[in-house]
Each structure stands twice: as structure tokens, then as C-alpha cells.
Design brief:
490 residues, alpha/beta, Amidase signature (AS) enzymes, 11-stranded mixed sheet, two-stranded antiparallel sheet, globular
């Protein structure tokens, strides 16, 4: 089958083509369906297909376009992470016991996407409980990286990142608590945005069989993924805004404009590694190239600052607060085992693994003390953003690693420049934005010598999501962005 001219276009470009009748919504949807049917046997990104309803939605979009209607996503095919409720489709979060659960209604964000004219092709694969940087489970199997099928596409939104890289529509929806939007974007060379905490209501992004009630999972957000930076803003504007079932959250309605519109105006603090979790040579080399390009383009690039919060201390705090939250869903035997292990810890053990164990056992009093520490951390970040507009830093220490499905993640290892490090310690770099709730935009910045994607994250000030998003657009325009995987560039 001949390569379609539309497969790797951005949503913005496709909207323009639809408006000028160069292509129809049905043609775009059928093109994406054809690609899924042709390629997904190797990648396994789309675990739940909804092609019949997608084509119905596309026909309705074409009719609306013919009437002269205009909506942000009208006629645009896209995928959504399996963890979102889509009425009439299964939502399992990878739990085998929930394989027969069917969501009765759409999540709020899905309803907003459909109201904006989006065409939902299907749902993308996840790890069990959304708890890994790989995407595999007993129900749907393993998702592979389109750049190297023997490697992870990332997780937990790994199905979404792989779908984007393979050309299955220009947009997807994911979620993030330990990098689950940003890490897959890194590993598959696409874009993602972790919104400011609380900006996008998560109702309906709910583990089955819980009812889809308004709630805020501490640290967790939902957000957009795309193959281009501008498309992130397009989708974010559709899904952001207060939940009508909640009161007193009107602050979510309006985001300030980006601080700047030109590269030369940006004040950038750029970090390439840290002893807490070093980055390998390929990642550092790509970041150095980005730093040089930013400088040549006129941005003010600073390599260190005393204003940057203590990364080691904030990472330890993040580990405790994250595991305190995650432990709520632990099976009783796992919780008891962690409790016993935590009791054996030496008082002077401040390793990240030790902090994770301590987090499992946090009392309410201890959690409130930790939350006070987070409040102080947020104040430090506010002070930093008086002198800088963004912080650019690593997302992961290495490009995509080979599949490793050994059951105990704490015993897994990641190899960085020939030295083994604890697999779960990779939480450190995503956590730099997660703990204080800051917006962070993941962007691709090149390929490793092995042809694997490498990226960074751009952190911005609280509720100033448009600032890192704008810089992401400028970097893409000046230096390039997504590069299709050679195996699937057809």
C-alpha cells in the first residue's frame, strides 16, 4: 500500500486540509485505521479498536464541515490511553480481574474531545495499574517501540506514544504521576505535556470498577500527547477547565499567555545530569547540542544556579509522597512485606529505595509534615522563576532500554555508561516537576547513535503552561522535532 501524505501530519495541518476540502474526515480516519491494521501486529499499541464508531464520527464530522461548522478537533482521528473510560469499551488498567469491565459513559475529557469533533479510533496499551515505564499486561500483551521492537516504548502511556510514532492519528491522551506522559514521549520521539496539577479534571480516568466521580489523585495529572508541539496546546485547551460537578475551581479556566514569543527572549536554566541519577553519554551529548543551538538562537542559557532546589532532597521527598499514595492500592501481602522491610531500615539509610519503603508506611502526621516540605519546595520554585523562564533538564538517563518483565521492579537494573543503577530510581527526573505540580513539556531533541529517540523536559512556572509549550514550539521550528521510525515510515 502506498504511503499516505497525511499519516505523519500534525493535527493543525490536518485541520487546515479539512477546512479547504483537500481531504475528508473519513479519508483521514480510514488512513489511520489502515495503518493500524497494517503495522500494529508488530507494535501492539492499540489494544481496543473502535473503528466502526470512529467511521460514524468521521462521517458526522464531514457533514458538520459541509455545513460550515468549526470546532477545534473536528474530523481529527486520535487515540486515548486504555485507562480512560470510553462508554461501551473496556477499561481494565491492565488488571486481569477487570478484563470484562465496560465503562458505561465517557470520561469528562473524552466527552470534551468528542464535543470538539475528535474521532476516537481506540484505546492504547498500558502496564498493570499504570505502574511501569514499559507497557505490557496479561490481557493485551506487550507494546513494542517502533524504533526498535525489542525495546520499551515507555509507560505507562506507552501505547499512546507508540501509536503516535507509528502514524496512528496525530493526537493521544495520557496520564502522568511518575513520568507516564513524558517518559513514553522521550522513548518514542514525540511530544507530551504534563499540565500544572489540577488544571485538567480527571473524572473518568478511574481504575475499574470505581465510579467516575470528581477527585484529585495526589501528584497525578492527565494530559495531551502529539507529534508536534503546537498540537499539545490544541488538545490541552479542549480538555482543560473546571469539572462542572466541582465548585470553586474557576482558576482553571484561564492560563496566562507565554512569557515570551521569541527564542531570544527566553532565560533558560539548563541541567544535563546530576549525581542523584546521572545521564549517559548519548543523552548528555544531545542536551549539549540543544544548549549550543539555544545559545546561537539568542536565548540566555545558564548552566547552574543556587536557586535550583536541592535535587537530592526533593527526590527523597517525592519518593516518600509517591509511595504513600500508591501504597493505598497495594495488596495486603505486599503491604505487609513492605512494612516489615521498612522496619528493618537503618536510620541513616537515605537511599531512594529506602525512602520508597518509608513512604509506604507514612502516618497521616508524617504525610502532613512531608506536605509542608512540598509547600516550601513550591516557594523555592516560585523564587527561581523570577530569574528564569524555564528549566530544561533530562527525563530519563538512557534511550529506550530492552524489555525487562522481571516481576520485582526494585531488583531490576538500568545500565548507564557501563554502570548499573536501580531501575526505580529513574523516577527522579520525572519527579522534579511532579512533586511541586509544575507544568512540564517533553520534546524530542535527536536520535542516539543507535537510532533511538532522545528528549528533554521543559519545566515552567505554576499555571504558566503556555511558557514551556511556546518554547517547545520554537525549538521544533528552529531545530526540528519528530522523526518517523524507519521501519514504519510507509
Amino acid at each position: 500500500m502506498a504511503k499516505s501524505q497525511w499519516s505523519f501530519r500534525s493535527a493543525t495541518e490536518l485541520s487546515a486540509a479539512l477546512a479547504t476540502k483537500k481531504v475528508s474526515a473519513v479519508e483521514l480516519t480510514q488512513d489511520a485505521i489502515d495503518r493500524i491494521e497494517r503495522h500494529d501486529g508488530k507494535i501492539n499499541a492499540v489494544c481496543v479498536r473502535d473503528f466502526s464508531r470512529a467511521l460514524d464520527a468521521a462521517r458526522a464530522a464531514d457533514a458538520a464541515l459541509a455545513r460550515g461548522e468549526s470546532k477545534p478537533l473536528l474530523g481529527i482521528p486520535l487515540t486515548v490511553k486504555e485507562s480512560y473510560n470510553v462508554g461501551g469499551l473496556p477499561t481494565t488498567w491492565g488488571f486481569p480481574a477487570q478484563k470484562d469491565f465496560v465503562a458505561p459513559e465517557d470520561a469528562l475529557s473524552i466527552a470534551r474531545v468528542k464535543e470538539a469533533g475528535g474521532v476516537v479510533l481506540g484505546k492504547t496499551n498500558v502496564p498493570i495499574g499504570l505502574g511501569d515505564w514499559q507497557s505490557y499486561n496479561e490481557i493485551y500483551g506487550t507494546t513494542n517501540n517502533p524504533y526498535d521492537l525489542g525495546r520499551t516504548p515507555g509507560g505507562s502511556s506507552g501505547g499512546s506514544s507508540a501509536a503516535l510514532a507509528a502514524g496512528y492519528g496525530p493526537l493521544s491522551l495520557g496520564s502522568d504521576i511518575g513520568g507516564s506522559l513524558r517518559v513514553p514521549a522521550f522513548h518514542c520521539g514525540v511530544y507530551a505535556h504534563k499540565p500544572t496539577f489540577g488544571l485538567v479534571p480527571p473524572r473518568g480516568h478511574t481504575p475499574p470498577p470505581l465510579p467516575p466521580l470528581p477527585f484529585e489523585r495526589d501528584l497525578s495529572v492527565i494530559g495531551p500527547m502529539a507529534r508536534s508541539a503546537a498540537d499539545l496546546s490544541l488538545l490541552l485547551d479542549v480538555i482543560a477547565g473546571p469539572d462542572p460537578l466541582e465548585a470553586g475551581k474557576a482558576y482553571r479556566l484561564a492560563l496566562p499567555a507565554s512569557r515570551h514569543s521569541e527564542m531570544k527572549q527566553f532565560r533558560v536554566l539548563l541541567i544535563d545530569t546530576d549525581p542523584v541519577l546521572p545521564t549517559d553519554t548519548a543523552v548528555r551529548t544531545a542536551i549539549e547540542r540543544l544548549a549550543a543551538n539555544l545559545g546561537k538562537a539568542g536565548a540566555t542559557v545558564t548552566r547552574e544556579s543556587p536557586l535550583l532546589p536541592d535535587f537530592a532532597a526533593s527526590t527523597r521527598l517525592y519518593m516518600r509522597m509517591l509511595l504513600s499514595f500508591l501504597a493505598v492500592s497495594f495488596q495486603p501481602e505486599i503491604y505487609e512485606g513492605a512494612k516489615e522491610a521498612a522496619a528493618r531500615l537503618a536510620a541513616d539509610d537515605i537511599s531512594l529505595a529506602a525512602e520508597r519503603l518509608r513512604g509506604v508506611m507514612l502516618s497521616h502526621r508524617d504525610w502532613l509534615m512531608a506536605d509542608s516540605g512540598r509547600t516550601r519546595l513550591r516557594a523555592q520554585w516560585r523564587e527561581l522563576f523570577k530569574s528564569f523562564d524555564v528549566v530544561i533538564c533530562p527525563l530519563m538517563p538512557t534511550p529506550a532500554f530492552p524489555h525487562d518483565h522481571s516481576p520485582d521492579q526494585e531488583k531490576r537494573r538500568i545500565r548507564i555508561d557501563g554502570k548499573d543503577h536501580a531501575y526505580v530510581d529513574q523516577l527522579a527526573w520525572p519527579g522534579i516537576a511532579t512533586l511541586p505540580g509544575l507544568p512540564a513539556t517533553a520534546i524530542p531533541i535527536g536520535l542516539s547513535p543507535q537510532g533511538l529517540p532522545i528528549g528533554v523536559q521543559i519545566l515552567g512556572p505554576w499555571l504558566e503552561d503556555r511558557t514551556p509549550l511556546k518554547l517547545a514550539e520554537l525549538i521544533e521550528r528552529e531545530f526540528g522535532g519528530f522523526v518517523p521510525p524507519p521501519m514504519f515510515d510507509d
